[in-house]
């Protein structure tokens, strides 16, 4: 005997959809706000009414959620809103569906967010009016006679099955959505003749101040923090403008703010030690493309810094036959990113030192995940460490690398471009779909790990080196010796020992000064060789090729000896060029035993221009030299001037290349009458915040590429000869809009060297 059976679920299935799939009350409210967003609303108002002063639920307590969205027609209510798991938000052609008016990416997917209401209360009164219609529809879910599982609380009432639930839809003339003015956080709206209003009463669970105020933080799901700060999307403001007002007994609930004038924007711009901006991960090439402190960078996953990274290695590799085999990375799609890293241990006078108020602001944020400009929760919550920054930090020297508190960032994905990265039904992160999500997270973790162990470590190492130099300054040691003498002035034996100490210190200092001069010279030699070696090798290779060709031709019976002279002259020209280049560079070596003498600045400048000729041509940089008055002369060595010019040229070429503009210029004015040289370029110039530090040792704005010695060496070389170099500080000295340096070839009265 065969019988036909049907699945007949209890009505508690709605509880499972609304309660068990929604983590908490905050998420439940957010799900309902999201429906307003998908309805193209300009605003949504969430009101907590008739609660006690201590936020406890009373019999008359209710939550009201109202918007001015497109509203619902009778058909939409019947065929969509009343049916869980409605597929209407998916496009049949596979493209991402957008809202009709504002073209927002529709956030809802599974058609269950509306049942978040049942997480909040047992009685639901819905009123809606569709845009452009004359009818208003009301629907009431009254389930107060049933327990949380929709089972009867009395013998007179039957247990509810899902197919037993019936609700009355009432059609009336508009009474809620009529011509009226709505004030949301002091912003007035007049177009309110359509929308949806949900009143939730017979509230479930408990509420408190922390829960209600916590909802304001969840609003970040609809407020793109970075776009608000950086100012993106100004042209499409209507698309992203979505005003959310939270009220408790009529009073507007604001997000907690520090009583300070410090802004996150200012912190990003001035006090983050590492700025990673305009980042793009190209999944087809496995390539990170980004700006690091305004310098363009590219980093491939094939790079040893990535493939050798422990995070990457542990996730993507397997050991086979004693060889490391890397499996293919899932095609989770391209994504954009920005990161800002702060140093909580930086002390004054460092420009990166943070006051306590600033640290509090930074600590409130994490790395956010945004899909189509809307946050994916819980990524970015204060307690969340979805990229395992702190876990990874705990496996190494914790004090040496940044923590979760010290980094703010965003990862931007899209529904269409990252179709395999899907929200969990309970809105608690992404589904681990095969390897897509785990590979995506690992790639981000690997990049952050690279920033920790390469970029941030270099920053820390440079600071340590700088501190060493600061701690060994002559003034500090000499002051300590002076204080000791004063303290032991009555003790002849102690004074004798201090005298011996002072003598040893001066001998050691003289030795260190000599070594410092050698180091400075070698640094400039390195820059010069780096610049000239390519040209020299090209000419040498050309010369060797010419010689080989001449030798081969000379063995032939028909060799024309009349052409021998012209071929040899060509070779002489090639090797003369190499000779002159080497001769110019030789001036930099201390082994040449150079003596100070009077030198025409123009002569040395011409040599440096020759050294940089190919580089200047390749970068399309023009050099203009202006001579004013009598010839400008300095008393020093050739090497000192060569190093000065090499450092200035190297900086200008680098920064003009970073700026990436056309018509690049270097302008040099030699004024013999005023004994000054002005060296100018039309690059990006020097930031105001960097000005006090550019002549400090190991201070560089070039990221990991910077040595932080060029300008420091230049100043020391000039001071050694009683001259001085500084930034132009008056308008008359600034020739071009970029960096402008003034070198004064007049004996300085206060020589610090």
Structure explained in plain terms:
The protein is an alpha+beta fold and 753 residues long. The protein has 4 domains: 12-251, Heat Shock Protein 90; 264-466, no CATH class; 503-593; 594-753, Histidine kinase-like ATPase, C-terminal domain (Heat Shock Protein 90, 2-Layer Sandwich). 36% of the residues lie in helices and 19% in strands. It has 20 helices and 26 strands. The strands form 6 sheets. An 8-stranded mixed β-sheet has the order 5-4-3-8-2-1-9-10. Helix 19 (638-659) runs antiparallel to helix 20 (710-720). The longest helix is centred in the last third of the chain and has 63 residues, at 492-554. The protein starts with 11 loop residues before the first helix and ends in a 9-residue tail after the last strand. Residues 221-239 and 749-753 have low confidence and may be disordered.
- DSSP helical segment count: 20
**Named CATH topology of the largest domain:** Heat Shock Protein 90
Query: Sheet bearing the most strands, described?
Result: 8 strands, mixed
Structural class: alpha+beta
Strand content is 15-25%
How many domains? The number is 4
Reported CATH architecture of the largest domain: 2-Layer Sandwich
Strand arrangement in the largest pleated sheet? 5-4-3-8-2-1-9-10
Number of strands: 26
Report the C-alpha radius of gyration, rounded. 36 Å
The CATH class of the largest domain is Alpha Beta
Mean pLDDT across the residues is 77
Low-pLDDT residue spans: 221-239, 749-753
Can you tell me the overall shape? elongated
- Compute the separation of the termini in Å: 108 Å
Approximately how much helix is present in the residues? 25-40%
């Amino acid at each position: 005997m065969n019988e036909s059976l049907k699945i007949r679920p209890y009505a508690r299935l709605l509880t499972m959809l609304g309660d068990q799939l929604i983590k908490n009350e905050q998420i439940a409210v957010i799900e309902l706000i999201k429906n307003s967003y998908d309805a193209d609303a300009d605003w949504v108002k969430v009101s907590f009414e008739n609660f006690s002063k201590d936020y406890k639920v009373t019999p008359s307590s209710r939550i009201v959620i109202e918007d001015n969205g497109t509203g619902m027609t009778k058909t939409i209510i019947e065929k969509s809103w009343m049916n869980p798991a409605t597929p209407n938000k998916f496009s049949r052609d596979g493209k991402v569906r957008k809202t009709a008016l504002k073209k927002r990416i529709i956030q809802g997917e599974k058609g269950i967010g509306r049942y978040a209401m049942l997480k909040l209360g047992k009685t639901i009164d819905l009123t809606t009016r569709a845009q452009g219609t004359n009818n208003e529809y009301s629907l009431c879910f009254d389930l107060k006679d049933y327990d949380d599982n929709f089972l009867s609380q009395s013998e007179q009432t039957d247990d509810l099955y899902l197919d037993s639930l019936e609700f009355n839809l009432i059609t009336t003339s508009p009474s809620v959505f009529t011509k009226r003015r709505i004030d949301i956080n002091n912003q007035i709206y007049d177009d309110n003749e359509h929308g949806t209003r949900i009143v939730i009463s017979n509230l479930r669970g408990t509420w408190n101040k922390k829960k209600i105020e916590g909802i304001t933080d969840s609003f970040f799901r609809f407020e793109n923090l970075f776009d608000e700060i950086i100012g993106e999307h100004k042209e499409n403001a209507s698309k992203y403008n979505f005003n959310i007002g939270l009220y408790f007994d009529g009073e507007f609930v604001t997000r907690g703010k520090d009583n300070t004038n410090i802004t996150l924007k200012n912190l990003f711009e001035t006090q983050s030690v590492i700025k990673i901006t305009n980042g793009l991960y190209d999944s087809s090439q496995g390539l990170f493309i980004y700006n690091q402190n305004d310098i363009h960078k590219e980093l491939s996953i094939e790079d040893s810094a990535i493939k050798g990274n422990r995070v990457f290695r542990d996730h993507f590799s397997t050991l086979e036959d004693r060889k490391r085999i890397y499996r293919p990375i899932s095609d989770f799609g391209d994504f954009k990113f920005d990161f800002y890293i702060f140093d909580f241990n930086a002390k004054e006078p460092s420009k990166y030192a943070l006051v306590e108020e600033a640290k509090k602001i930074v600590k409130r944020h994490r790395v956010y995940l945004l899909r189509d400009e809307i946050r994916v929760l819980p990524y970015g919550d204060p307690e969340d460490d979805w990229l395992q920054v702190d876990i990874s930090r705990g496996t190494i020297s914790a004090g040496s690398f940044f923590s979760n508190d010290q980094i703010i960032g965003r990862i931007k994905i899209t529904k269409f471009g990252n179709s395999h990265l899907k929200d969990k039904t309970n809105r608690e992160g992404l589904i681990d779909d095969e390897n897509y999500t785990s590979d995506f997270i690992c790639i981000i973790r690997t990049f952050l790990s690279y920033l920790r162990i390469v970029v941030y470590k270099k920053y820390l190492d440079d600071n340590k080196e700088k501190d060493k130099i600061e701690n060994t300054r002559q003034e500090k040691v000499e002051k300590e010796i002076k204080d000791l003498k004063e303290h032991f002035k009555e003790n002849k034996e102690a004074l004798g020992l201090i005298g011996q100490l002072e003598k040893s210190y001066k001998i050691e200092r003289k030795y260190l000064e000599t070594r410092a001069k050698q180091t400075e010279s070698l640094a400039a030699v390195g820059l010069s060789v780096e610049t000239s070696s390519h040209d020299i090798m090209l000419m040498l290779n050309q010369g060797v090729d010419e010689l080989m060709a001449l030798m081969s031709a000379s063995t032939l019976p028909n060799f024309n000896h009349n052409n021998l002279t012209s071929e040899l002259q060509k070779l002489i020209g090639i090797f003369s060029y190499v000779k002159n280049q080497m001769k110019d560079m030789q001036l930099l070596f201390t082994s040449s035993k150079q003596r100070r003498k009077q030198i025409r600045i123009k002569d040395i400048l011409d040599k440096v221009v020759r050294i940089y000729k190919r580089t200047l041509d390749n970068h399309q940089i023009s050099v203009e030299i202006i001579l004013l008055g009598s010839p400008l002369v300095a008393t020093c060595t050739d090497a000192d001037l060569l190093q000065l010019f090499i450092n200035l040229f190297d900086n200008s070429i680098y920064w003009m290349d970073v700026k990436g503009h056309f018509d690049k210029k270097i302008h040099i004015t030699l004024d013999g009458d005023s004994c000054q040289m002005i060296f100018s370029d039309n690059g990006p110039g020097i930031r105001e915040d960097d000005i006090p530090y550019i002549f400090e040792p190991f201070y560089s704005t070039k990221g990991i590429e910077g040595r932080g010695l060029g300008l420091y060496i230049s100043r020391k070389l000039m001071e050694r000869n009683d001259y001085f170099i500084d930034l132009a500080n008056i308008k008359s000295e600034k020739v071009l809009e970029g960096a402008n340096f003034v070198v004064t070839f007049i004996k300085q009265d206060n020589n610090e060297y």
